[in-house]
Amino acid sequence: MSRQQFSQQLRRERELRGWSQARLAAELGTTPNTVSAWERGISLPSPFFREKLCALLERNAQEMGLIQAEAKEEALQDISYTTIEIPSNEQKPIEQTIFSHKTAPTNVAPQIINRPLDIPEETRPPANKKARKLLLLTAILLILSLLIGAGSIYLTAQQPNPYTQKGTLVLEDTLAAQNLHLNWQEGWNENHASCQFRREAYFSYQPLEGFFHACIAQATNYQNFAYEVEMTLLSGDYGGLIFRSMNSIDSKYYLFRIHTDGRYALKLYIDKVDDHAPMLAEGTSAAIRTGIAQTNLLAVVADKETISLYANHQKLATIQNNTYTHGQIGLFAGNEMQAPAEGFFRNLKVWTW
Hints:
With about 350 residues, this protein is of the alpha+beta class.
């Protein structure tokens, strides 16, 4: 089946059950915007949500049209990506991974299972006072170490943001893999633009000239915050941050971008037409590392109607605008004349107050 046939099949299965898009999204653990994008043929579900869809609707992947649709996207992928070697955080080569849906969320603690040790009778220590004292001392030291560790985590979380020295660190994501609590977009759209986790980073790819491709954390919603991330452009002209996204499907958000030539801009998107987006701030800055394959630390501080932009801890501009007061965060790569555009992102942090 084609992408269109999959979207039609999904809509038919949902309507047969009398479900709204919001109900289907709730059953899957995603957002109505995501379901709408699937049914409109804008994007395909990631492998994680394909498995959930098949189980929920009691249909296999072939009946849903996912097998052939996935094969088509994989064939497109073979010719889509810029082949530039990217070092991992551990500075060792890593094989490209298309999806990381089987990876546990980065902020979920591993389950610890306590099992009794099967110690032979002849090797067990004698039950005397000395042994009991040793066990008690060991237990006390273990409790102290846990308390110290918990205190360190608490202090780290309480550290204010480095831009305005206030707020609490509520999100710290390496972007090495999908985080189900954030629900980053994954997959391809009809233009073969994509959002993917691979090589221990989150990639945005746009093959068309004159466009950018937004990748949204669909389960986020922040009002007053500081938001920073490391960005590296591999090709294209610009990339950056999306914030206070009221509706990512209809492109209602703020967009902060830097260019490879040192320019920056902040635009207010009210629909999908770039020419309709008012320019709120623009300029050039020596704080921006120029050229391809340069890593820049970008940040936005949004405090009520005051919005400040940063590059590598240097303030670029401050403006006043209250069109959007809260919403999702996102990332993107784009181009003006240097297609395709591809960039990857790592080490995202958000502080709120």
